[in-house]
Amino acid sequence: MNQQALLYYLALQQAEGVGAVIAKKLLVHCGSAEAVFKEKTMQLSKISGIGSKVTHALKNKTLFEAAEKELAFISKNNIICQLITDESYPEKLKHCPDAPIVLFSKGAIDLKNKKIISIVGTRNITNYGKEVLEALIADLLIFNPVIVSGLAYGIDIFAHQLAIKNNLQTIAVLAHGLDRIYPSAHQKAAVHMQENGGLMTEFWSDTNPDKENFIKRNRIIAGLSEATIVIESASKGGSLITAGIANSYNRDVFAVPGKLSDKYSVGCNNLIKTNQAALYSGVVDLAYLLNWETKTITKSVQKQLFVQLDNEEATIYEFLNTNGKQQLDLIALQCKMPIFKTVTILFNLELKGMVKPLPGKLYQAI
Question: Which CATH number describes the domain made up of 298-365?
Fold first, then answer.
């Protein structure tokens, strides 16, 4: 990487009042971080949303002193840096309006052409949560996805550990710099995941894991992946914030339902009830809603004559056979079935060679 370019990006990232959104606006206008610092104050002031506070902050010479110190830490510790303009920058995250302009990572992270799933939930994982998570990871193995989480207690660390156990790439997004691991009890897992996956953060060294940093961290967890799965959550918590951010990015969100009496199922049940998440009952739900190639799940099944269909299967098949290509939501609506049941029936029809999925959550009778 061009060290000079990185130095300017670090200085821009450090400038007071210049968050990710404003930084991207400056980069678009000026073309590069170096050009931002060389641009005349009058010209910068003409950019919408750029006030005197920002232009004054950009003139602070101590920015480059701090940037040089951080650059020395990066070099000494073999930290991988990705600028938002780099081709290697995570593609899905790049399209988020508040994506960080610089990402720091350690390990062997490879996101190219990968299915990426974020898994979040309570720190107070229950036996039910563990059972669901074990089944989820086992079912996902055939897709070889990257598992993203936040290295916290509970659902996060269990997801990372299961990924490591099953040789899946896993990424922990941190709420602090790469000079430490928080919580320290997860140091061993953090070391292991760097062999197949790694650690990622937008924060500099010497950054403490303060409360507000976890919220900032959550947007990266949501932005990296094509879907976020909430496994257990109380009525409030960081996992619900992550789900909300994922929704704002127009990413799919899934929630695992639980008993109405269970404290750590309240959040998930509310997500489903308020249509902020699709119900997750198995990998079939995920595969269909994300349009993953379901022939990966099973061998190709040719359509056979005189296939036996139950009443619900027959209803959906006849609807598709009569009306041609249809979207999932419309199929569920017209056939008067909940989406989660419609997904399962469509999958069964595909196994019987009666239906095939198409891009855009469309389905067609064969």
Answer: 1.10.10.10
